[in-house]
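ARCHIVE CARD
Drawer: 12
Card no.: 0347
Subject: one protein chain, sequence and derived structure
Cross-reference: see card 0346
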Amino acid sequence: MKRSLITTLIIGVAGTLIVVALHATKVIAGFETVAAQLVTDYAGTTRIVGEKWQYVLVLLIALGVAWLSLSNVPRWRAWLLIGLLLVELFGLAWVCSLYRVFFQPAPSVLALVFAVLAAEGWSAFSRRNRSHLIRALFADRVSTEQFRRLIDGRTSFGAEPKTYDVSVVVCDIGNKLTFAEGGEPVAFTEATAKFIRETAARLVQEGAYLQAADGEGVVGVFGFPAPDPEHVQKAARVVLDLIKSSRERDEDEEKLASKGDIRAGISSGAIIAGALQENRRPLLLASGEPIDLARRFCALNRFYGSRALMDTATFDRVSEEVVARPIDFVSGLNSHDRLEVYEPLWLAAEAGPERVAQRDSFWSGVVLYREKRWAEAYTEFQKARGSETEDDPPLEFYLRRLEPLLLQLTEWPPE
């Protein structure tokens, strides 16, 4: 907005100075004579509109037309208004002649033409410059539809840094370190490349901005560059869908890609993003706590055995749509911060009563464990077990924690 206002002022003042100079030096005297003869009779007039008032009108017209041409008004509507203004200038000269007042429309008409040409030229240059910026920043990083909206201006994006409310998803291979150490380099590289390619394509397809896709994981940002009130729900859904797809692979594919099982971290909040244009190729700088936390949660999956983790802020916004369970309190980016992390399990619409009951038992077990009621916690965790064929590493994590504590209770019973 500020930039458009400055451009409008520059075009308006410059156009006015040019018209005033042409009028004062009599360069456009011939054009003024022809324009006046079309609508007025100079010989029959008794008064003349002074040059000062003419120049004020020229400035107002130049500013108004420049603003209209640079605004977000639809092009056909802007051209219609400019055309009506042109007709009204000649109409004003004709009405003035009826009262024997001579009004010279030529300077105002020239100011209108100059303002239109200057504004259209600037718009064409800006669109070309903006198109280059959009292609450099977002090509192959957003969906085709979102990219088209950025190019044609339906989705606005400014290069200046701004704060965005987003959800960040970080996906990585679950057993990457073990795979890298025990596997062949070629096989590891091929599996990692396939994981990156498929995961990145899925995140982009679902509306994320692809911030990174390399050996350190795939990072997708929902709610950027176009604001999206449903970005948290979309992030949770796509993570659960990726996990579900991983679970539903057939046995041969699982044998081939079991070491490439997906792990994810989700965090929601504010980030700062803006374009750096100091280099020949513009770069997009995006930074904020959600990006760092999502990476941390993704890595923490290896410790708990979970497939995905999200923070409390994310859980609070998707708790009605996603069945999730608490896992633990972890340190935040600062050593004094304590964050509770949750594991999203299923979409609420797809989770039956049995799964919800298992989640509730696990939740009760975690609460009892934190209250140091070991025996009761163990009983609740046993209720949270699924079928014998289902692995539940977070559940086993808590049972392993409880084993030595229960052993102490049996060896030293309370007096």
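Annotation on reverse: The radius of gyration is 34 Å. The first helix runs from residue 2 to 24.
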